[in-house]
What does this fold into?
Amino acid sequence: KQEVTQIPAALSVPEGENLVLNCSFTDSAIYNLQWFRQDPGKGLTSLLLIQSSQREQTSGRLNASLDKSSGRSTLYIAASQPGDSATYLCAVEGNTPLVFGKGTRLSVIA
Amino acid sequence: EPEVTQTPSHQVTQMGQEVILRCVPISNHLYFYWYRQILGQKVEFLVSFYNNEISEKSEIFDDQFSVERPDGSNFTLKIRSTKLEDSAMYFCASRTRDTAVYEQYFGPGTRLTVT
It folds into this structure.
C-alpha cells in the first residue's frame, strides 16, 4: 500500500530565505507526483506535476525534483515571501489514485 | 481561467439525514473525482468517475455514498444517512484525460458538519 510522508510537518523561515520541502513515498511504481498548495480552509491549488520519466519541473520560484528509484521528491522555493505561507501537499499517482502526504505547514515571516 | 466549482461551501446537517454535495467540473474534462479531508488529517480518495460510471472507489466509499452526473455539467456526491464521522471537507476534482501527464484540478471544497 502506497504511503506518502512529508518532512518537516511545519517550517518557519524569515522572508527571502530559500527552502526545501521533502516528500517520500514507499512504492516507486508511480505515474506522476504532484505538489499542491492549500491555504487554511481552502481547496488545493496544483503547483507542479512531475511525470515518472522526468527528473524535475520548474515554475517561477518553484522547482520540484523527483528521484523515483529512491522514492523521494523535493520542492525548492527560492526567495520566500510572506504570501508563500500555506500548507504544501505532495501526492503520488500510480496503480492507485492520488495518495497524499499530510503536508508541510510553511510560515514565512516578514 | 476555467475552474472547478462546488456548492454549498458549508453544509450543516443532522446525523441520519441525506446530503448532496454538488460540483461543476471544468467543461472539457472527462474524469471526475471526490476526495475528503477530515480536519487535521490527510486528503483521502473516495471515488473516480468516467463515462457515466464509477471507475474506482476506496474502502471509505461504502453503500452510504453514491455519485451521479445528472446532466452535462454537474457531478454530485450523495451521502444517504450521515454519521458524525462524515464531518470533513469534501473536494471535487476533474481531469481532461486519465493519463500520467495530466494534472487533476481541485475545487474549493464543501465543509460538511454533521451534528
